[in-house]
């Protein structure tokens, strides 16, 4: 069994904005301001429609065999097409169960649009039973199937008014949360050239998601108390061995016991 917890970070697709509204004379920062303003006018908030997002980081946590890993796809110089291709290639190769927080409402639809833009094939991901009958009743696309567990969706009983944030759910369970960073700061960090900070933040989001998932596995009976403790210790020992500043900060904010 392979299980991927994943998260993406995005910025405005300024190329789209420039072409859509004929903003060729404006620099990227001003194009983004125009996109945010147009969204505010039409929707009352600045959060862009999903097809107007560009992916700048994808992080995953992989639990397989006796091992646990967390990393960001590609390197800091990888372009969007490479990041998206690596994500879908991993699904086609491992056919993992996916775990996310709001992945059905944000991450995966964004990745669909970006794969469409870059012509990235992922036949296993898009399989719904036409060539493999196992996927008819359990595929990545159906909201209620288990190949993708959107924890925000499931824990809220598929009721939008009952949904919680990852930050507050993680803190509720005694996990670190976002440690001062948030998605609305990604564009600013990107403009400052801080892609490393964005990738580090994305990895901590993946870790929070995975830890919440482990508690979810306990309440639905797939782990007992001893099994949960083993899984938590595996995460701790993995992060300790990696000895990265952001992971050390995460560990320091995650009290033992």
Bin the strand percentage.
Answer: 5-15%
CATH fold title: Nucleotidyltransferase, domain 5
SSE topology string: EHHEEHEHHEHHHHHH
Please give the share of residues in helix.
40-55%
Main beta-sheet strand count, sense and barrel state: 5 strands, mixed
Number of strands: 5
Question: What shape does the CA trace take?
Answer: globular
Structure, described:
- With 257 residues, this protein is α/β, with parallel strands linked by helices.
- The protein has a single domain (2-252), classed as 2-Layer Sandwich (Nucleotidyltransferase, domain 5).
- The protein has eleven helices and five strands; from the N terminus they run βααββαβααβαααααα.
- It has helices at 14-20, 28-43, 80-94, 103-118, 123-126, 151-155, 166-172, 186-191, 195-219, 225-242, 245-252, and strands spanning 2-12, 53-64, 67-72, 97-100, 148-150.
- It has a five-stranded mixed beta sheet with strand order 3-2-1-4-5, sandwiched between helices.
- Helix 1 (14-20) crosses helix 2 (28-43), helix 3 (80-94) crosses helix 4 and helix 7 (166-172) packs across helix 9.
- The protein is globular and about 60 Å long.
Summarize the structure.
The chain has 257 residues and is an alpha/beta fold.
């Amino acid at each position: 069994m392979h299980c991927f917890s994943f998260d993406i970070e995005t910025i405005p697709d300024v190329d789209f904005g420039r072409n859509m509204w004929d903003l060729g004379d404006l620099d990227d920062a001003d194009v983004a301001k125009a996109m945010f303003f147009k969204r505010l006018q039409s929707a009352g908030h600045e959060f862009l429609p999903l097809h107007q997002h560009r992916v700048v980081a994808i992080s995953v946590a992989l639990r397989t065999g006796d091992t646990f890993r967390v990393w960001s796809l590609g390197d800091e110089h990888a372009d969007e097409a490479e990041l998206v291709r690596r994500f879908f290639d991993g699904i086609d190769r491992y056919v993992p169960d996916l775990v996310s927080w709001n992945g059905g409402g944000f991450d995966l639809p964004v990745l669909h649009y970006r794969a469409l833009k870059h012509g990235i094939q992922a036949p296993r991901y898009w399989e719904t039973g036409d060539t493999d009958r196992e996927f008819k009743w359990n595929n990545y696309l159906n909201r209620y199937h288990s190949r993708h567990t959107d924890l925000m969706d499931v824990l809220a009983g598929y009721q939008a008014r009952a949904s919680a944030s990852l930050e507050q759910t993680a803190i509720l369970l005694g996990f670190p949360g976002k440690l001062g960073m948030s998605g609305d700061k990604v564009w600013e960090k990107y403009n400052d050239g801080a892609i490393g900070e964005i990738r580090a933040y994305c990895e901590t989001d993946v870790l929070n998601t995975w830890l919440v998932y482990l508690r979810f596995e306990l309440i639905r009976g797939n782990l007992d108390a001893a099994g949960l403790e083993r899984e938590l210790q595996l995460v701790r020992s993995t992060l300790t061995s990696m000895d990265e500043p952001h992971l050390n900060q995460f560990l320091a904010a995650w009290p033992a016991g």
